[in-house]
């Protein structure tokens, strides 16, 4: 890593990074990859888009995007060795970010049409269909982060862009900081910060200035000790 060492959980001001952090984006055949790459580059990262473990391991940070069904994304991840990579990355202490279905697969299980599929299992919890009349939940919505959230530090307008019909309703993880959102009376997990792992149900890369600030915050977070 370049630049001075910060205490665990410390946050540099976005734009004050000593050097552009290197970020690997895991390419496992799920959509929105190039949107994520462009947004991360705009936030100051040097981005590598790859399915190669060796190429991604050379990066300082890892992003797991995802669009579609939980089970299908898990199958695609397995096909490129992504499940083992993400588990090992989470255990290594290096910064890890999941987006949309990339956030969902961090949970232990996903249930679609009554069928349960195993997730990566970083978080204890289950992803299931939202209990709302209008699905998918698509468009802008306000989130409720914890007051001491690092990911949302300095984010004024906390409206982000969502496209999903499934979510988790709880994170059974001691020490996890949970950001919430509500759609059609159903309160669900919109984001998680736990140790070196962060994830969002919404798409920061499609969320304008708020999303750009959130990505800059993530790039500015120090890795876990």
Question: How would you portray this structure in words?
Answer:
The chain has 225 residues and is of the alpha/beta class. The chain has a single domain (22-220), classed as Rossmann fold. 24% of the residues lie in helices and 32% in strands. The protein contains 6 helices and 13 strands. It has helices at residues 33-42, 53-57, 70-79, 82-92, 101-104, 208-220, and strands spanning 22-26, 46-50, 61-64, 96-99, 107-112, 115-118, 123-129, 137-144, 159-164, 166-168, 177-183, 186-194, 197-200. The radius of gyration is 16 Å and the shape is globular. Residues 1-13 have low confidence and may be disordered.
Task: List the SSEs and their pairings.
Layout: E1 22-26, H1 33-42, E2 46-50, H2 53-57, E3 61-64, H3 70-79, H4 82-92, E4 96-99, H5 101-104, E5 107-112, E6 115-118, E7 123-129, E8 137-144, E9 159-164, E10 166-168, E11 177-183, E12 186-194, E13 197-200, H6 208-220
Parallel strand pairs: 1-2, 1-3, 3-4, 4-13, 5-7
Antiparallel strand pairs: 5-6, 7-10, 8-9, 8-11, 11-12, 12-13
Hey, roughly how much beta strand do the residues contain?
A: 25-35%
What is the terminal separation in angstroms?
13 Å
Q: Regions with pLDDT < 50 over 5+ consecutive residues?
A: 1-13
Count helical runs.
Answer: 6
Mean pLDDT: 91
Q: Which superfamily, in CATH terms, is the homologous superfamily? A: Class I glutamine amidotransferase (GATase) domain
Give, in order, the helices and strands.
EHEHEHHEHEEEEEEEEEH
**What's the CATH first level?**
Alpha Beta
Largest sheet: 9 strands, mixed
| Oligomer description | single chain
- What is the CATH architecture annotation? 3-Layer(aba) Sandwich
Total individual domains? 1
Q: Residue share in helices? A: 10-25%
Total strands: the figure is 13
Structural class by helix and strand composition: alpha/beta
Can you tell me the CATH topology?
Answer: Rossmann fold
């Amino acid at each position: 890593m370049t630049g001075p060492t910060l205490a665990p959980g410390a946050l540099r001001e976005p734009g004050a990074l000593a050097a552009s952090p290197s970020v690997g984006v895991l390419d496992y055949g799920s959509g929105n990859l190039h949107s994520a790459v462009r947004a991360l580059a705009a936030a100051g990262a040097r981005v590598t888009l790859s399915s190669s473990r060796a190429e991604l391991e050379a990066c300082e940070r890892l992003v797991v995007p995802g669009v579609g069904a939980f089970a299908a994304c898990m199958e695609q991840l397995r096909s490129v060795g992504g499940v083992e990579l993400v588990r090992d990355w989470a255990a290594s202490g290096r910064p890890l970010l999941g987006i949309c279905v990339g956030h969902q697969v961090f949970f232990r299980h996903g249930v679609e049409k009554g069928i349960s599929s195993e997730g990566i299992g970083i978080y204890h919890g289950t992803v299931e269909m939202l209990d709302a009349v209008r699905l998918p939940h698509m468009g802008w919505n306000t989130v409720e982060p914890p007051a001491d959230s690092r990911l949302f530090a300095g984010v004024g307008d906390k409206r982000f862009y969502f496209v999903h019909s499934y979510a988790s309703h709880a994170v059974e993880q001691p020490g996890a900081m949970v950001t919430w959102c509500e759609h059609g009376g159903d309160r669900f997990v919109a984001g998680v910060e736990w140790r070196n792992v962060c994830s969002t149900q919404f798409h920061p890369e499609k969320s304008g200035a708020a999303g750009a600030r959130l990505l800059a915050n993530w790039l500015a977070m120090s890795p876990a000790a």
